[in-house]
Design goal:
With 307 residues, this protein is an alpha/beta fold. The protein has two domains: 219 residues, Spore Coat Polysaccharide Biosynthesis Protein SpsA, Chain A (Alpha-Beta Complex), CATH 3.90.550; 75 residues. Helices cover 53% and strands 11% of the residues. It contains ten helices and seven strands. The chain has a seven-stranded mixed beta sheet, sandwiched between helices. α1 runs parallel beside α2, α5 packs parallel to α8 and α9 runs antiparallel to α10.
């Protein structure tokens, strides 16, 4: 099999040599690609000395790099990993073997049971659980670590992935893409380590968390419009009924409408609820057509097979 290890990098001079060396040892037959994203340190020089294919993406953001990698690289199996030396390269062969033997499309290396102090900060753990739980609820999927940057993909996953995100919300898109097409996916526990001394995370906790949250709702609107607009319609209808109930009681008792502006407001809100429900129904039909087209494109690629 042609195996490609894809490493997006931004200012990882202190970690990239270890990452490349570990994956050369774990997957000696794989081609390792380092995609530099405008690093201002010696990342490119160190990676080139370690013996990899160096490529560049000028548009800043992990999502832009992933889009470029998936478009450029041709392989049977893809291993996506961050260049910060926090993931366990030795787990890659087992993840690939499971992808192939079970005809899967994505294997995710979860970070939930790391024992190394400082590897997974409590604030990041809480945010990960919250965002993962939200996506699991919105899309009805069983996922434990949606934001893991360690994944193994089949060719048909990579070549049908739309890659619309620009930043760290790309992991959310990867999860939703698999859920949208009901792809076979598994999560496996892998060790997770603290960053090497002298390196720092590029994740901005609050701003990137907010972007991931917005991305989750945007994807829900695109992939499950009937659910999203149906929930909005239900909330608007409940508000309308809450405003209208006292007026209806008064009307039944006195045959008068003492609060006409409130009655008009309640009627208007109920009208918006009806429009929201209709919009959801229409967009759901459009979304089904899009999913059918994506599914047919996905099926044009065969599953990964050992050669």
């Amino acid at each position: 099999m042609r195996i490609a290890v894809l490493i997006p990098c931004y200012n990882e001079e202190g970690a990239i040599a270890q990452v490349v060396g570990d994956f050369h040892q774990a997957l000696p037959g794989a081609t390792v690609y380092v995609y530099d994203n405008n690093s201002k340190d010696r990342t490119v020089e160190v990676a080139a000395h370690a013996g990899v294919v160096i490529r560049r993406e000028s548009r800043q953001g992990k999502g832009n790099v992933v889009r470029r990698m998936f478009a450029d690289v041709d392989a049977d199996v893809y291993v996506l990993v961050d260049g910060d030396a926090t993931y366990h390269a030795a787990s890659a062969p087992a993840m690939i073997d499971r992808l192939v033997t079970e005809s899967l499309d994505m294997v995710v290396g979860t970070r939930l049971h790391t024992q190394e102090e400082g590897a997974f900060r409590s604030g990041h753990q809480w945010g990960n659980r919250m965002l993962t739980g939200l996506v699991a609820w919105l899309f009805g999927v069983q996922v434990k670590d949606m934001l893991s940057g360690y994944r193994v993909f089949s060719r048909r996953f990579v070549k049908t992935f739309p890659a619309l995100a620009n930043g760290f919300e790309t992991e959310t898109e990867l999860t939703v893409h698999a859920a949208s097409l009901t792809m076979p996916v598994v999560e496996v526990e892998t060790p997770y380590f603290a960053r090497p001394d002298g390196t720092e995370s590029k994740l901005r906790t609050y701003s990137d968390g907010f972007r991931i949250l917005i991305a989750a709702f945007r994807l829900a609107k695109d992939e499950r419009p009937l659910f999203v607009f149906g929930v909005i319609a239900l909330l608007m209808a409940l508000i309308s009924l809450g405003l209208a109930a006292p007026i209806l009681v008064t009307f039944v008792e006195t045959h008068l409408v003492p609060r006409l502006p409130t009655a008009v407001l309640a009627a208007a809100i109920m009208g918006v609820a009806a429009l929201s429900l209709v919009a959801g129904i229409i967009l759901d039909g459009v979304g089904n057509g899009r999913r059918e087209s994506k599914r047919l494109h996905y099926l044009s690629y065969g599953p990964v097979e050992k050669r």
